[in-house]
Amino acid sequence: MRVAIAGGTGAFGRALAGRWHGAGIDVVIGSRDPERAARQAAAVGVSGATNENAVRDAELVVLAVQSAAAIDTARGLADAIGSTPVLCVASDLHVTKEGIVAARSEGSVAEDVAAVVQGPVVSGYQALPAAQLARSELLDEDVLVCGDDAEAKRLALDLGQKLVSGRALDAGPLSNARALEGMTAVILHVNRTYKVVAGLRLTGFS
Ligand SMILES: NC(=O)c1ccc[n+]([C@@H]2O[C@H](COP(=O)([O-])OP(=O)(O)OC[C@H]3O[C@@H](n4cnc5c(N)ncnc54)[C@H](OP(=O)(O)O)[C@@H]3O)[C@@H](O)[C@H]2O)c1
Fold first, then answer.
1. pLDDT for 206 beyond 90
2. pTM check: above 0.90
3. Cβ(9) to ligand 1 under 6 A?
4. How far is CA 105 from CA 101, 124, 145, in A?
């Protein structure tokens, strides 16, 4: 299977690319700059291309550009993406005097992305820290994915299971993306307060 990571030159996309490449998945890193894509891709042993060329012929597109650029990037790539499923990993956060908070009181980045592409959009992976992903051990946490399309969600969950020692969990419809995106603010706050790199584990499974 072929996964394209738009904005894969960033810490998160690069770490995903390295993990999946190690698991035998065909990964292409995308960038606005093909030379940067080639450089970063070579460092993790995958191929690199412009975002537009990377997303063509992929079976899943991970939208891993800076969160503030996610919606515009999805709009710009919509024709090249076509009906391919998109995994949105973005969170819309504000830094305030009181701390890092969720920027939205309704909707989500993922739902806005879904409004500009033709294929199904799922949202997830927000709680997986890039720095931990870049190491070799599986992350000691669960990975959550929400979305309205069962097949796209299964794809993102199967790929997510390759990253963690915990569970890859179906987190419901795409409207739950607001909760997943908002949880990032909580985790970043906890990290800052307790000087840790926190992750998510749901209990109650026997
Ligand atoms: N970092 C983490 O621990 C982590 C964890 C979970 C989820 N995420 C999510 O993963 C995504 C990427 O995170 P990151 O830390 O890797 O971000 P990042 O390094 O800030 O950005 C990733 C890439 O986005 C591209 N980019 C930057 N500005 C852009 C613009 N205006 N238009 C189009 N592309 C632009 C750049 O690629 P080019 O310049 O090469 O085009 C950059 O390498 C974010 O949505 C973040 O919330 C991150």
1. no
2. yes
3. yes
4. 11, 19, 20
